[in-house]
Amino acid sequence: MENMNLLEVHDLKVHFPVRQGLFGGVRGYVKAVDGVSLSIGAGETVGLVGESGCGKTTLGRAVIRLIEPSAGSVRFEGEEITRFSGAELRSRRRHFQMIFQDPYGSLNPRMTVGDIIGEALDIHRLAPEPEARRKRIEELLSQVGLDPAHFSRYPHEFSGGQRQRIGIARAIAVQPKLIVCDEPVSALDVSVQAQVINLLQDLQTQLKVAYLFVAHDLAVVEHISTRILVMYLGRIVEHGPSTELIADPRHPYTQALISAVPEVDPASKRQRIFLGGDVPSPIHPPSGCPFHPRCPVAESRCRREVPQLREIKPGCFAACHLAR
Ligand code: SF4
After folding, report:
1. Which of 253, 275, 297 to mutate to test the pocket of ligand 1 (most atoms within 8 A of CB)?
2. Helix (H) or strand (E) segment spanning residue 163
């Protein structure tokens, strides 16, 4: 148990059927997640990056069973959670929570802040006495930097950043061991983003909670994550410790993402790599390496052979024929 990861995902797939008309047969599958393996240690933050449409949100939801995986294994504290259902699954749900991208749409506008946070406590019967419940909600509000006196206010009375703090309070209310943060700052003003990230980091220190931090922006995950996974068209194309991956990316896709991050050092010689087009449709993925239509260094074999993830240097993996 000592060295076991909190979360171990192996060869996870989420394939959505594509039907011919309303009642027609299945004519194909959208392979939103196609054979992903990853692990997260207790109290660790792992960043998951990629352009929109690459499958990262689906993956984030599938590891906590908000979306049903089509195949693969998800072990949480050693237990295979894909085989749980009903009460068994509900009892585990307390340990993994989610913070959503949209702080406007993810809070019920007809519920007070106290009830939004209290609902999570009620589901898991964590504060059945009204007095203890109220005290705990007030404690959570101040823990996320909100005024406990705002207990009876409604979501529309708060700014975007404050609403995201309410979402964070709801997630930590049940003392989870893992939180999937799905683009938690991308809908917020840049000035507010850093405050919310700092709050998440402070909470991690206090609560020892692990994060799977999903973002399209490498600059955001760089500072919060110990390791980064780069996803493209349903697969992990590169992963490694954050500092090494940012300083020395080996996959052309990661290199392009990093080249787009604005640099603080004016003396830096980093060249911007522009990628043509969008992420291709996962219904008809390209042959061979799925990145080859956009890859600036693709060779003929890239169109035929699918590159597998290989260890390029200790702890750093890339799925590219040319990565060294
Ligand atoms: Fe580019 Fe080929 Fe590497 Fe794919 S395998 S990333 S197409 S060089």
Report:
1. 297
2. helix 160-172
